[in-house]
From TrEMBL:
Species, as recorded: Flavobacterium ginsenosidimutans
Species classification: Bacteria, Pseudomonadati, Bacteroidota, Flavobacteriia, Flavobacteriales
Catalytic reaction equation(s): (R)-pantoate + beta-alanine + ATP = (R)-pantothenate + AMP + diphosphate + H(+)
Domain of life: Bacteria
Subunit (UniProt): Homodimer.
Protein name: Pantothenate synthetase
Amino acid sequence: MHIFYSKAALIAYLKTIKTANSTIGFVPTMGALHQGHLALMQRSLKENNDTVVSIFVNPTQFNNPEDLAKYPRTLEEDVKKMRTLSDKIILYAPSVDDIYEGNTVSQTFDFDGLENQMEGKFRPGHFNGVGTIVKRLFEIVTPTNAYFGEKDFQQLQIVKKLVEKTHLPVNIVGCPIFREENQLAMSSRNERLTADERKEAAIIYKILTEAKDFFQNHSPQETVEFVENSFKDNQEFELEYFVIADESTLLSIDQKENDKNYRAFIAVFVNSIRLIDTISLN
Ligand SMILES: Nc1ncnc2c1ncn2[C@@H]1O[C@H](COP(=O)(O)OP(=O)(O)OP(=O)(O)O)[C@@H](O)[C@H]1O
Ligand SMILES: CC(C)(CO)[C@@H](O)C(=O)[O-]
Ligand code: BAL
């Protein structure tokens, strides 16, 4: 496996392997790899000549310093996991300085309102940080295809908008959510849960699927109340938000309309650990 810690070395290497018709697949991550990340890599390996994976815990997208400090960093184990997939993966694991060159701040973006709901509302500045790092990584890696998970559905829509607005020549590929055996969405933050919490966190997806059924015969507002009440019965989980939104605008809805795609989004605290999940309602 090729591992690069500096953009200069990565860019020089990519120049030696790129040909007129070759494709580069790119999987940006923050590390602490799990099966969800590995599935994105497998897809990239299958669909491209070369695959670059980045591991970088991006400080500018964290609004909560404790969340940043406690974010799991497991580079050695991550490398081992990637090796089980393919020795051909090109890993870019930069320092903060290599990316930000002494100026660790976000650019400000206008994502046509996609940034104002849910994760953007509850993590102020988050999507400016995501936009800044994703744009920078795209400029360094120059991917043909870039792979993002639907667990971060709002992020996926925002990255598509970023590409549309900046005219970067990259195709964004959304990939399905990988779940643990108990259906909890895989997440690097799951590593911070105790064994019991991890087991009990299955309730998040259970309530989401119940909400999906409930929504078929009830209004959006009634469905929101149904979910809020379900969490009141589960005191160890603190619901931050449950939103039913139009999948394309991400705006929450008051009424159902025909021919629209709707999706439910949820963020829940287990202790101080924040987990998100989402489900299509169609
Ligand atoms: N369970 C999953 N299934 C599919 N893709 C996923 C899953 N979890 C994360 N991803 C995707 O992997 C990429 C890197 O995500 P990231 O490194 O933030 O991992 P994460 O598990 O989402 O971490 P956390 O949930 O703690 O933020 C993103 O595109 C994300 O959507
Ligand atoms: C896309 C990303 C790697 C940018 O830091 C991050 O937001 C993530 O892991 O989803
Ligand atoms: N998975 C999105 C990255 C974050 O939580 O900051």
